[in-house]
Design a protein that fits this description.
Helix content: 25-40%
Shape: elongated
Number of helices: 4
Order of helices and strands: HEHEEHH
Distance between the termini: 91 Å
Length: 125
């Protein structure tokens, strides 16, 4: 009888450890500065890329704030991977500089004004 009780205690302990393991699958929300985002094309390019990125639940880019809000599962990815992925699309992300080749392939409106890009100047009335 004692052996059966001991086995039950072991089994329940193992189940508790497994429940704690599942708890590590934490959904994290982070904000990333994307200073090179110029327009809705930029926003769409980044958000579309993250539809297929492993571990990312959602990505919302705010063009006016030049900021991306990302929700991701910490057991599948991390903030550095996400910054690098944004850079691979062609945009700066916090302290990670855009991939040069990807940046050159962006439409002119999505490139920095100093590189001849950026939104067209507003018309004066």
């Amino acid at each position: 009888m004692r052996i059966i009780q001991f086995m039950l205690v072991l089994l329940l302990s193992a189940g508790g450890a497994m429940a704690q393991q599942v708890g590590k699958n934490t959904l994290v929300t982070a904000k990333i500065k994307v200073p090179t985002v110029q327009c809705n094309k930029c926003k769409d390019a980044i958000q579309r890329y993250f539809l297929r990125e492993e571990g990312v639940k959602s990505m919302v880019v705010d063009v006016k704030k030049k900021e991306a809000t990302v929700k991701y599962y910490s057991d599948r990815t991390n903030i550095e991977n996400i910054r690098t992925a944004i850079a691979n699309v062609g945009y700066d992300a916090d302290d990670v500089t855009a991939n040069e080749d990807s940046y050159k392939r962006l439409p002119k409106c999505c490139q920095k004004p100093e590189d001849g890009g950026g939104p067209p100047p507003k018309k004066k009335n």
